[in-house]
Structure formats: structure tokens, C-alpha cells
Structure prediction request, 442 residues.
Amino acid sequence: VRLWLSLPLLALLALAQASLVPSLDVGGARADLMLVFVVGWAVVRGEGEALPLAILGGLLLDLVSTLPPGAHVVALSVVAFGTDLGHRFLRGGSNLFAAIAVVVASVVFDACLAAFAGFGADRAAWLDAMTARVLPGALYNLVLMVPALALLRAWDRRFPRPMVPEF
Amino acid sequence: MRRGSQARATSFLALGLAMGGLLLGFGQSLHVPAARGVAASAFEPAESALAAVGEQLRGVVETVGSIARLRSDNARLEQQVADLQRQLDQARQQAADDVQLQGMLGLRQKLGLHTVSAAVIGRDPEGMSASITVRAGAAGGVRVGMAVLGMRGLVGRVTAVQRNSAQVDLISDSREPVNVVLTTSQLSGTVHVSETRLVMDVLDAPANFAISPGEVVLTSGLGGNFPRGLPVAAVTSYRYQPYGVAQVAEVAPLDDLLHLDYVMIDTDFVPEGAQ
Prediction:
């Protein structure tokens, strides 16, 4: 039920990604709002809770994107799973982990999209995309992660995960 | 670690990859382009609104970003304005000095005097007397009693001399009456301060005596305090007084005594008994 409740927020993020974010680029670098949200939630909650959000968010992004359909679903699922794995390994989500996670996730996410967009065959285009967009975008996402993490942690405190006995 | 949640995460990953792979492989068959068209139509109003918000946000961000540059530009321009203002002030001061010095030079040539030029370096700090200090003294040949001129006429008399400076009592000082003569009628009189105004007492004026405003009065040389023939003041107003002992005309100094920057000291004339 909560997943469907998050649908309006995910739709808003997808729409903002398509319409608002291009206006707020800094030197060509753009934020990935959906990625920041999914990674942030994986850092805060872990336990695989970000995976369904990643799939749903990826589908919505695929609807408003011109990239091959399914690219965002795969890329977001991969980074959400990786972050979730890190959360399990570290038994929690510290600020340092969040910072590293969002930078690594940004690079992996954009690398996946670049691969699906057909950049993989062209090494020069790949390098250009990495230096001109991916790395600055990762820093942009890192900055966005600060308020996002504060909001998600506040949400987590307000609506904590129900305790389920472990067998 | 909870194995249940790990299994769930792995399942969702598999689901995501499967869905992604399905869409990537069979997107056309699954009518994804049509779905995108429907989504674009449905989302268009919201996208337009968000795009407008984005443009406004960008404007705000650019404005905020330009504040630092504007501040820097403002500081640089303020500095330039201050420099230019200083240069303008210097140029104005030099122009004023030039006018004074040229006037003094003209007066000196006209009167055929030998003079020592001196900058005004001090004024009476209390404002109790009309006196100035000039940068010329005994070393330059200045003696007590010498006449001091501005660029148009007499301004005062040397009252004390040091090696490199001297004190001058101006003609607007009540202690410094000047014996003068009117240029047209040749009637003599005295220019002195009366109730803070500079006036001339005209002696031996005939009945219905008239003076034209603007007439210049010259030193008469009587009394031996000043040489003869130096311009002193100009008549500003006069009214004949039938029952007066002496006729009184209001006069004004030819130079602005409050704003003297340079003066000339007439070294040709030394009063009798001067040190």
C-alpha cells in the first residue's frame, strides 16, 4: 500500500526530472532527482525497501524519457540494490556512506544509461560524457543528497519501519 | 542481517532487471512509444508548470550568483569614482590656483612692484581676528609693515615676521584702517571696519556728493602705512547724508579675504620705523 502511496511523489520527481532539472543545470551538470531519492531511501531504510521504488521510478522515468525503454528501470534497480547491499554490509547508513553511495551510484547510473544510449561503442563519446556530465552530475547529486537525507531521515523518524520478529 | 529482506531485495532486483530487459527487448511490441505519447499528453500541463518554475528558479539562482560579481564590480567602480573625484578635485584646485597666480602676476605687472609670493598656510583658529599666516619670512626679505596683495588689490599688512613665515592682518581686521583716496573725485578717506562691515569715511565731501557703485578706492599713502596707489576696495553702496560729519560709503574688498590661497608681499615699500 505504501508503495502506491509513493506513486504521486515518484511521478512528481519524474516530471521534475524532465522539465525542472534542465533549467537548473550548472555548467552542463544536471541533478538526478529520482536517483537521489532512491539512493537516499536505501541509505536511510535499507532492507530492500528502495528496490520497488527504483522499479516504479524507473518505469516513470522511462515514460518521460527518450532513451530506450527499460534503461532507467535497469539502472535504478542496479544502484538501489548496490546501495541496499552497502547498507546491509555496514549495518546502517552513515553520512559518509550516503556521500560515497550517491557519488558511486550516480556514476554507475549514468554509465548504464550511456551504455543503453549507444555510447558504449564510441570510446571518445563515452569519455566526453563521463567528464562533461557524469562526474559533475555526481557532485550535483552529492549536494542534493544533504537536504534529501535530512528529509528522508525525518520521514523515517516520523514513520518508523514496523518491527517484525526475526526467525 | 535479515535474510528475508535480503531475499526480497534480490527478488526485486531480478524483477527490475527482467522488466528492464523485457522493455529493452520488446519495447516496440509492448507499445511503449504509444504509452509515452499518452504520458506526454497527460503530463504536459504539469511539465509546463514545472518548466516555468524551473525558469524562475534559474533566474533567482543567476541573480544570487551575480551578487558577488556585482559587489566586486561595485567596489572597483567606487574605487575608480574616488580616484577620478580626487583627480577632479586636484584639477579644480590647480585651476583655482592658476587663476589666483595669474591675477597676482597681472596686478604685479600693472603696478610695477617687486613682490614675494607666498602661500597662505594658516588662518586665525579662533576667528577672533582677521589674520593669516603666510609661508614667507625674513629669509625672503619680508619685513613688518609691508603691504600684502591678493590678485586684485590690497588684502592686508605684515604684522609679525619669522624666518620663513609671517603674520598678516587683513584689511577686514578692525585694527587695520587704511587711508584711501577715491579714484574719480580724489577725495580722501579711511577704510575701516564698522559693525562687521567694511566702510569708507569720506572726508571733506561737498554738498550732494555722489559716488558711483563699483568705484575703486586706492591707498592714499597718507600716514605712511601703505604705499600710494594700491587698489583696496570697491564701493558697493552709498547714500548722501546732508547732516553727517563725514559721508560713509560701504565698500567690499577686491579679493575674497576668506578664501585666499596665495598672496604677494610688496617688498619695495617698508614703512618708516619698521623692523
Observations:
- Chain A has a mean pLDDT of 85.
- Residues 87 and 161 of chain A are 15 Å apart (CA to CA).
